[in-house]
Design a protein that fits this description.
- By secondary structure, this protein is an all-beta fold.
- It has a single domain, classed as Jelly Rolls (Sandwich), CATH 2.60.120.
- 0% of the residues lie in helices and 44% in strands.
- The strands form 3 sheets. It has a 6-stranded antiparallel β-sheet with strand order 1-2-3-10-5-8, with no helix packed on it. The chain has a 3-stranded antiparallel β-sheet with strand order 7-6-9, with no helix packed on it. A two-stranded antiparallel sheet has the order 4-11.
- A hairpin with a 2-residue loop joins strand 6 and strand 7.
Length: 121
């Protein structure tokens, strides 16, 4: 068993493109390696960079706001309660084109690690 309590969470990561990420379970949070769980907030008008993973599958579950996703060449919208599975080597990007924060959970299997994230720009 691994328990992740708020006082022990790693620092919130603010990337320069606008994503605000809090790892809840993962390599830094509770030492989980089988999977990771993070809450991600994307402010209005911001987006992730297009990227892919060679080993990890990644799932997003939208909690609030409206997401515009691009995976490879397919573009689609996700609303609260909707989810997507992103498989290895699929180039993906998530946008917030609305006036409210986009908040979602991101799960990676195996647990996210920086060496498995590759920019696609």
């Amino acid at each position: 068993m691994k328990i992740s309590l708020k006082p022990n969470l790693p620092p919130i990561f603010n990337n320069p493109y606008g994503e605000v990420l809090q790892e809840i379970l993962g390599r830094q949070a509770a030492g989980a390696t089988s999977h990771s769980l993070a809450e991600v907030t994307i402010p209005p008008g911001k987006a992730s960079l297009p990227h892919f993973h060679k080993k990890s599958e990644e799932s997003y579950l939208i909690l609030s706001g409206q997401a515009t996703m691009v995976i490879d060449t397919e573009r689609f919208e996700l609303a609260p309660g909707e989810a997507v599975l992103i498989e290895p080597f699929e180039v993906h990007q998530i946008f917030n084109n609305t006036r409210e924060d986009l908040v979602f959970l991101a799960v990676c299997v195996p647990a996210w690690y920086a060496e498995d994230s590759f920019d696609a720009v």
